[in-house]
Design a protein that fits this description.
The structure holds two protein chains of two kinds. By secondary structure, chain A is mainly alpha-helical. Chain A has two domains: 2-74, no CATH class; 89-299, MetI-like fold. Chain A is 76% helix and 0% strand. Chain A has helices at residues 2-27, 34-39, 46-55, 62-74, 88-123, 127-142, 145-159, 182-188, 194-232, 235-242, 247-284, 290-299, 303-331, 333-339. Chain B has an eight-stranded mixed β-sheet with strand order 7-8-9-3-10-11-13-12, with helices on both faces. In chain B, strands 1, 2, 4, 5 and 6 form a five-stranded antiparallel β-sheet that branches. Chain B has helices at 46-54, 80-89, 108-115, 124-141, 147-152, 160-173, 190-206, 218-224, 242-247, 252-259, and strands at residues 4-15, 18-30, 35-39, 61-64, 67-70, 73-74, 91-94, 178-182, 210-215, 227-232, 235-241, 311-313, 316-318, 324-325, 334-335. The two termini of chain B are 34 Å apart. Chain B is an alpha/beta fold. The chains are: A mainly alpha, B alpha/beta. The A-B interface holds A 233-236, 238-246, 253-254, 257-258, 261, 332-334, 337 and B 51, 54-56, 58-59, 84-89, 92-93, 95, 97, 100-107, 114-115, 154, 156-157, 167, 170, 174. Chain A: Residues 96-328 form the ABC transmembrane type-1 domain. Chain A: Belongs to the binding-protein-dependent transport system permease family. OppBC subfamily. Chain A: It holds the Pfam family BPD_transp_1. Chain A: InterPro entries: MetI-like, MetI-like_sf.
C-alpha cells in the first residue's frame, strides 16, 4: 500500500511538472514582453525590470529559467493582475471558495439523487419505469449546459420570478468573510439577519447548482444502474437471497457497496468535462468563482490571470483525479486484489 | 408425508438460440430424514433443480410445475416474504461456486456473522459476540484450524476449498430441515472431503436434517445416500432406494453407468480399452425429442420419440418404455 501511495504521489508530481512546463512555454508566446507576461507590471521601472530578470533568471539558461519559474509560481508569487493591479494570489483566494461551494453542492445533489434513482432503475421490474428513467437521463446527458442554464434562468428567474439568477448573495446583506463559503459564513455571522441571508444564499445557489448537476447526475444514474444490474446477477447476491436476507438488506449490504465502486471511478473520469461545465455555468449565473474570473481575464487579455487560473484549475483536476484513484483503492478491497504482485 | 414433493417440474430458459427446455417433467420425492442423491453429468440440470427448490430462479427462467409441496404447504402459493423466511431457516444450500458465492467487497467474517442465527435471550449488543462464537465453532466443525485469520480475510484471499468450508458452515448454522448440497466437496483435499461427509451424515442422523446431495461421483453417492435419482440431460431416468437401484437397475442409462465403472481390481485396467457410452450428451440447443437418451440408448426403439412417463412401481420410479426386467430366480440382464 505504501508503495502504491508513493507511486501515486510520483504520478502527481510528474504530471504537475509537465503542466508547469507547458505553462512556462506558453508564457513565452504571449504577444507582450516576457517580463510583463510574467509579472503583470505593464510599465515597469528600471528597478522592477532588474528585479524581474533576477527573480525569473531571465539571463540564465532555459532550464534555470524553468526552475526559477517553478520557484516563483509554487511559492505563491503569481504577479499582479494587469487590469485590477491587485495580487493574483489574493484574487484567487477570493474566488476559489465560491467555486468549491458550487461544486460541493452540485456533487452532493448529483450523488444524493443519482444513486437512489440508478438503483431504482436497476431493480425495477416495470419496463416503463426503466425506459422513462433512461430516456430522461439520456436527454439530460445531451442537453447543452449553456442552453439549459439560460432557459432555467429565463423561466424560473425572469418569467416566474421565483429565484435570483446572478451572484452568490443579495448585495443588501453585508456578511463578514470568514471561510469564504457563503452558505457557512451567513450561518455563523453574528448579525440579526443571518438567517434570512442564509436563505438568500440558498436561493442563489439553486439555479446554478441544478444546471451544473444535470450532467454528473445523468452519468451517476447510468453507471449506478449498469453496475447494480450487473451485481444483482452475481452468485453472491443469490447466495445472500438463499440465506433468507431481505431484499433491502441485500441491496444495502451486498449489492450497493459493490456497485458504487465503478461510480467512484467514473467520477474521476468525469472531472475534466465537469470543470469546463462549471466554468460555463459560473459565467451564465455571474457566480464569483474561479471560472468566471478566468473567462473575464481572457476577455481582458490579462495574461497573469490566464496563467494562474489555468494553473490552479489544472492542478486541482490532477490532484482530484489522483485523490479519487487513491480513495477508490483505499475503500475498495477488490482493487487491492489487483495490486497483488504488481509492485 | 414427504418433506418435499415435486411433480412434473419443467424449466425453460430463454437463450439467444430461442427457448430451451433445460428440465423436462422432473419429479422428485424427498422423505424427512433421508439423504437423497442426485446423480448426473454436469449440464444435466441438477443445479437448476436445486435452485428451483431453493426459490432463486434466474431472470430468464420460466418454471412450470404441477405440484411443489414443502411439508404439506404449497411452495407456489407462498408470497415472496414467506418464501424468503423459509429459505433462511428451513432450507439451506451449499453452492457449487463457493468463491463466487461470497461478497468480494466484505470480509469473510462479517458475512459468516451476518448469517448466524440470533439468540433470542440476549440483548442486541450481546448478539455480535455470541454470533462470533457460534461462527468460530462452526468453522472449527467444518475443518478450519485458525478461524480468526480466516475471518479477517476477504473471499478472494482464501482458497476455493476454504470458501467452500465457509459456505458449508453458513448453510449448516441455521440448522435447516433440508440441506441442498450442490457438489459440496469438489475443491477440497480428500481427508477433508471425508470429514465433511461425516459431518453431513452426523447432522442427518442426530438432527434429522434431510440432505439433497448433488454429485457426479457414483461411489460417493452410493456410499452416503439412502435414495438416488439419476438425471440425464434434464430428465429423470430412474429413482429408487440406493441398494435396489445399484443391484437391479431398471433403466438402460443406470445400467450403463454401473457397468462402465472403471475396474480397479484388474491390473491391466489402465492399459485396457475403457468402455463408455457412444456419443456425447446433447447440447441445450439441440435436444432430441422424447426420451433424451434415445439417440445413444442401446435399447432404443421407435416408441422412444415420445417422452416416457415416470412409472411408479414398488418404491421405484423409472422413466423408460422398455425397462429392464429381472427374473426373481435367474437374475440375468435381459430386456423384456
Amino acid at each position: 500500500m505504501a508503495k502504491y501511495l508513493l507511486r501515486r504521489l510520483n504520478l502527481f508530481l510528474a504530471t504537475s511538472a509537465v503542466l508547469m512546463l507547458v505553462l512556462f512555454l506558453a508564457t513565452r508566446m504571449f504577444p507582450v514582453d516576457l517580463g510583463v507576461a510574467l509579472t503583470g507590471v505593464e510599465q515597469p521601472t528600471q528597478e522592477q525590470q532588474q528585479q524581474t530578470i533576477k527573480a525569473y533568471a531571465l539571463d540564465g539558461s532555459g532550464f534555470s529559467q524553468y526552475v526559477a519559474f517553478l520557484q516563483q509560481r509554487l511559492g505563491g508569487n503569481m504577479g499582479i493582475s494587469m487590469t485590477s493591479q491587485q495580487s493574483v494570489a489574493g484574487e484567487l483566494v477570493d474566488v476559489l471558495p465560491a467555486s468549491f461551494e458550487l461544486i460541493i453542492v452540485t456533487s452532493l445533489m448529483a450523488l444524493a439523487l443519482g444513486i437512489p434513482i440508478g438503483v431504482l432503475a436497476a431493480l425495477s421490474n416495470s419496463k416503463a419505469t426503466q425506459n422513462v428513467i433512461m430516456a430522461l437521463t439520456l436527454t439530460g446527458y445531451s442537453i447543452p449546459v449553456f442552453w439549459l442554464g439560460l432557459s432555467l434562468s429565463l423561466w424560473f428567474g425572469v418569467k416566474l420570478g421565483w429565484l435570483p439568477i446572478s451572484g452568490q448573495l443579495n448585495l443588501l446583506y453585508e456578511i463578514p468573510r470568514v471561510t469564504g463559503f457563503v452558505l457557512i459564513d451567513t450561518l455563523i455571522a453574528d448579525t440579526p439577519y443571518s438567517m434570512s441571508a442564509f436563505k438568500d444564499a440558498v436561493l442563489h445557489i439553486i439555479l446554478p447548482a441544478t444546471t451544473l448537476a444535470v450532467f454528473p447526475f445523468t452519468v451517476v444514474v447510468r453507471i449506478t444502474r449498469a453496475a447494480m444490474a450487473n451485481v444483482m446477477t452475481q452468485t453472491y447476491v443469490r447466495a445472500a437471497e438463499a440465506r433468507g436476507l431481505s431484499t433491502a438488506m441485500i441491496v444495502l449490504r451486498h449489492a450497493l457497496p459493490n456497485a458504487l465502486i465503478p461510480v467512484l471511478k467514473s467520477m474521476g473520469l468525469m472531472l475534466g468535462a465537469f470543470t469546463s461545465y462549471a466554468i460555463v455555468v459560473e459565467v451564465i449565473f455571474s457566480w464569483p468563482g474561479v471560472g468566471a474570473w478566468l473567462v473575464q481575464g481572457i476577455y481582458q487579455r490579462d495574461y497573469t490571470v490566464i496563467q494562474s487560473g489555468i494553473m490552479v484549475v489544472a492542478l486541482l483536476i490532477i490532484f482530484m483525479s489522483i485523490l479519487i484513484d487513491v480513495l477508490h483503492t483505499a475503500t475498495n478491497p477488490l482493487s487491492r486484489k489487483e495490486l497483488y504482485a504488481t509492485n | 408425508m414427504p418433506l418435499l414433493d415435486i411433480r412434473n417440474l419443467s424449466i425453460e430458459l430463454d437463450t439467444p438460440h430461442g427457448r430451451v427446455k433445460a428440465l423436462e417433467k422432473v419429479s422428485l420425492t424427498l422423505n424427512p430424514g433421508e439423504v437423497h442423491g442426485l446423480l448426473g453429468e454436469s449440464g444435466s440440470g441438477r443445479s437448476l433443480l436445486a435452485r428451483a427448490i431453493m426459490g432463486i430462479p434466474g431472470h430468464n427462467w420460466t418454471i412450470t410445475v404441477d405440484r411443489m409441496m414443502w411439508d404439506g404447504k404449497n411452495l407456489l402459493e407462498l408470497d415472496s416474504k414467506e418464501r424468503r423466511a423459509l429459505m433462511g431457516s428451513d432450507i439451506a444450500m451449499i453452492f457449487q461456486d463457493p468463491s463466487g458465492s461470497l461478497d468480494p467487497a466484505r470480509s469473510v467474517g462479517s458475512q459468516i456473522i451476518e448469517a448466524m442465527p440470533r439468540n433470542a435471550e440476549l440483548k442486541f449488543w450481546q448478539q455480535k459476540k455470541y454470533k462470533r462464537q457460534i461462527a468460530e465453532q462452526w468453522l472449527h466443525k467444518v475443518g478450519i484450524k485458525n478461524p480468526d485469520d480466516l475471518m479477517e480475510a476477504y473471499p478472494w484471499e482464501i482458497s476455493e476449498g476454504e470458501c467452500q468450508k465457509v459456505m458449508i458452515a453458513i448453510a449448516l448454522a441455521n440448522k435447516p430441515r433440508l440441506l441442498i448440497a450442490d457438489e459440496p466437496t469438489t475443491s477440497m483435499e480428500l481427508s477433508t472431503q471425508a470429514q465433511i461427509f461425516r459431518l453431513l451424515a452426523k447432522l442427518n442422523q442426530v438432527h434429522g436434517v434431510s440432505i439433497l446431495l448433488i454429485s457426479h461421483e457414483i461411489e460417493t453417492l452410493t456410499h452416503w445416500c439412502d435414495r438416488l435419482t439419476v438425471f440425464y440431460s434434464g430428465q429423470v431416468m430412474e429413482s429408487g432406494v440406493t441398494s435396489e437401484l445399484i443391484n437391479s437397475p431398471r433403466h438402460p442409462y443406470t445400467r450403463i453407468l454401473l457397468e462402465y465403472l472403471p475396474n480397479e481390481a484388474n491390473p491391466h485396467a489402465h492399459k485396457a480399452f475403457m468402455p463408455s457410452l457412444q456419443g456425447s450428451a446433447p447440447a441445450l440447443q439441440h435436444l432430441p425429442i422424447g426420451c433424451r437418451l434415445g439417440p445413444r440408448c442401446p435399447s432404443a426403439r421407435k416408441q422412444c420419440v415420445a417422452q416416457p412417463l415416470l412409472i411408479h412401481e414398488k418404491d421405484r420410479y423409472c422413466a423408460c418404455h422398455f425397462p429392464i426386467r429381472y427374473d426373481e430366480n435367474k437374475h440375468d440382464h435381459t430386456a423384456s
